[in-house]
Amino acid sequence: MTDARGSARQEGERPARYAPGTPCWVSLMVHGLQATQEFYRALFGWEFRPGPQQLGPYVRALLDGREVAGMGVLPPDLHLPVAWTPYFASADADRTAEAVRCCGGTIGVGPLDTSDAGRLAIGSDPSGAVFGIWQAAAHTGTAVTEVPGTPAWNELITFEAARTAKFYAMVFGYDEEPVVSAGLDHVTLRLDGRPVAGVYGAGGAVPRDRGPHWTTYFTVADLDEAVELVVHLGGQVLKPPREGDHGRTAAVADPEGARFSLLQQSS
User: Fold this and answer.
1) Which of 182, 169, 20 lies closest to 100 in space, CA to CA?
2) DSSP secondary-structure letter at 13?
3) Does residue 43 lie within any of the structural domains?
4) Tens digits of residue pLDDT in 242-251
5) Which of 74, 103, 136 is the last residue of a domain?
6) For residue range 96-110, what is the model confidence (pLDDT) as tens digits?
7) What's the DSSP call for residue 71?
8) What pLDDT is attached to residue 38?
9) Are the CB atoms for 48 and 41 separated by under 8 Å?
10) Which CATH number fits the domain that encloses residue 70?
11) Residue ranges of the VOC domain (predicted)?
12) Are residues 218 and 132 in the same domain?
């Protein structure tokens, strides 16, 4: 992880509308929505309310009344993994979807309108990692960050960082900042000078059962307590807590196998 802090915002508030290319939302599609809600309610203190139903049952997770993430049921004919998916802001979802296709990616869903909330598309990059595109209308995206229970950072695990980072740079207009270090294949994607996501080349270490994929980091107040709670709630620890450049992190999975990371930021 390069910089889990993202751009600084006062008191955790997000801007009124995310700039195109900025990660603006995360969504999880599962088989058992009720059980998954209970897991994340206990872990992060989320409450839920119904959201747009175009792709089936869907709820929005709220923290202190403010939206932080989405959660829905996987349609049986939609072949997507049980996984957290980041959405990137777009001023024109149709144009961004076309750019994805032109740059070697695919679009599996949409673009389509989600009532008055906005317009979305779900695609994958040339290596197969799934991501979303969000053109905001009434729903602009995650409403609070930098407090426990909110998304902190998104990082792509793929085979080779530079080639994949180039795809996202062409689609979303990012600047690429490679990490110059022996044995480390990592590129930070920047937008207007600020880090917005990371791309990590893992080569043959990419999980065979998962393939290239995005990982969302969520902020927690106490990493050790959060990891214990994940296990108590039926999840599993994939990588135990360890020190990083910007805090302590751990990789975990929920009871349906959706992978995500926890971050206790440095004070």
Assistant:
1) 169
2) B
3) yes
4) 997 778 999 9
5) 136
6) 999 999 999 999 999
7) E
8) 98
9) yes
10) 3.10.180.10
11) 22-136, 150-265
12) no
